[in-house]
Specification:
Chains A, B: GO terms for molecular function: DNA-binding transcription factor activity. Chains A, B: This is Helix-turn-helix transcriptional regulator. Chains A, B: It holds the Pfam family HTH_20. The structure is a homodimer of 111-residue chains. Chain A is of the alpha+beta class and 111 residues long. Chain A contains five helices and three strands. The first copy, chain A, has a three-stranded antiparallel sheet with strand order 1-3-2. Chain A is rod-shaped and about 80 Å long. At the A-B interface, helix 1, helix 2 and helix 5 of A face helix 1, helix 2 and helix 5 of B.
């Protein structure tokens, strides 16, 4: 159940262009909330909601030093998405293998 | 912009355990709405909303024959998620390479 909820949160976090833009920017290295907000076309409070959501799902970490809050990507967190996708892919490959075996068995010379 | 909206829809579709369960089941092969709904713990109209959302994002195809609607996974659709993840991963690797070059340059014997 915990993994289900984790996936819900992470996929939901990725379902928004502002949040994906933050992830994309942080892929190049840490940045302050101010820098990140400067690239977004919304008010700071609206932008902060996106930052908080990314943080709550564990996709980013943030830390405050004086008046500056710095955000950093938590790459490991992307594993929940990648593992889920890999799991689906394994199912598809197993199915392809089964179909292949079926076709070979059906076309083998019955004599 | 079109790709942005595509990603929004696909990630949102994946942010729900019922919809992920449908995708998981269809990974083993096509199934009727009736079969799929039997595994879910909700009314058929509620379940159909999930099916329609998966169909609208292109993650599944459905076709009606008589009274039976059959659902099939559209594996190609997962490429939008995989491409986006691969794009982020490339950024991270470029950053690691830059850091590595920086560390090597900083530690090289200056004599």
């Amino acid at each position: 159940m915990a993994q289900y909820l984790e996936l819900d949160g992470v996929f939901l976090a990725l379902a928004d262009p502002t949040r994906r833009a933050v992830i994309h920017r942080l892929g190049r290295g840490p940045a302050s909330v101010g820098e990140l907000a400067g690239e977004a076309t919304m008010t700071l409070p609206s932008f902060m909601k996106h930052v908080r959501m990314l943080e709550s799902t564990g996709l980013i970490h943030t830390a405050k030093s004086g008046r500056v809050r710095t955000c950093e990507l938590n790459r490991e967190r992307f594993a929940v998405v990648e593992n889920w996708l890999a799991q689906q892919r394994r199912l598809w490959e197993e199915r392809t293998d089964r179909l292949e075996r079926f076709v070979i068995a059906s076309t083998e010379d019955p004599t």
